Amino acid sequence: MALIPCQVLRAAILLSYLSVLCHYKAIEMPAHQTYGGSWKFLTFINLVIQAVFFGICVLTDLSSLLTKGSENQEQERQLKKLISLRDWMMSVLAFPIGIFVVTMFWAIYLYDRELVYPKLLDNFIPPWLNHGMHTTVLPFILIEMRTTYHQYPSRVGGITTVCMFSLCYILWVCWVHHVTGVWVYPLLEHINPGAKIIFFLIVTIILNLYYILGEKLNSYLWGSEKCIMESREKRSKTD
């Protein structure tokens, strides 16, 4: 894809996430008034992550256009930092968490929606907003993966970061239960403590598998093209 269409696409995706976040926050649901508010839910955290990520993408695109043809080394350094931040967020947060939210939500929803998205929520959340939170994340992140090469960190570093995020969220969910006596997700009400530990372990493993999937997909989509670009750069320097 050409650069300008990619820029427009990222800007449109960013605006869609901001719209979903604004509409979601405007809903007066009982859960929003309890301890932790919207931040109890991984779906909301994921929406914030996606919005921040695409915000960084748009900022990187703008910076790239503004510095194009410029010989200012400081601007080049700042642009490289933005690109590194964009790639890091894509690899360890936006892709694995985004894919996890979509696949886990719809898998449990199809099995028994009351375990993850009780029918009562239909009175507060319209269908289009539900899909904005739990469906469109998948095509958006795949489009980003296809249109832009992302430099992944080392396997150990990436998996460590994913595990830290998973552990922090699990501890947060447990803390909310400790304070309120209610689990964030109805599913957790139906399993015993031992099963909860296994469930949290499986969740962490799945997140890591999605991280590796993103790494492999990025390499598959861009591996050959990246080699061609690098060989051209070496040839131009030699010439």
TrEMBL record:
Instruction: Cite a GO CC annotation.
Output: endomembrane system
A Pfam family assignment = Far-17a_AIG1
Where in or outside the cell is it found?
Endomembrane system
Q: Which InterPro entries match?
A: ADTRP_AIG1 (IPR006838)
Membrane topology field: Multi-pass membrane protein
| Reactions performed catalytically | 9-hexadecanoyloxy-octadecanoate + H2O = 9-hydroxy-octadecanoate + hexadecanoate + H(+); 13-(9Z-hexadecenoyloxy)-octadecanoate + H2O = 13-hydroxy-octadecanoate + (9Z)-hexadecenoate + H(+); 9-(9Z-hexadecenoyloxy)-octadecanoate + H2O = (9Z)-hexadecenoate + 9-hydroxy-octadecanoate + H(+); 13-(9Z-octadecenoyloxy)-octadecanoate + H2O = 13-hydroxy-octadecanoate + (9Z)-octadecenoate + H(+)
Transmembrane ranges, per UniProt, are: 47-67, 88-111, 161-185, 197-213
Q: Which UniProt keywords apply?
A: Membrane, Transmembrane, Transmembrane helix
Q: Does the keyword Transmembrane apply?
A: yes
Chief location of this protein within or outside the cell: membrane
Q: Family per UniProt?
A: Belongs to the AIG1 family.
Stored PANTHER family:
ANDROGEN-INDUCED GENE 1 PROTEIN, ANDROGEN-INDUCED PROTEIN 1-RELATED
Protein's UniProt name: Androgen induced 1
- Write down the species: Leptobrachium leishanense (Leishan spiny toad)
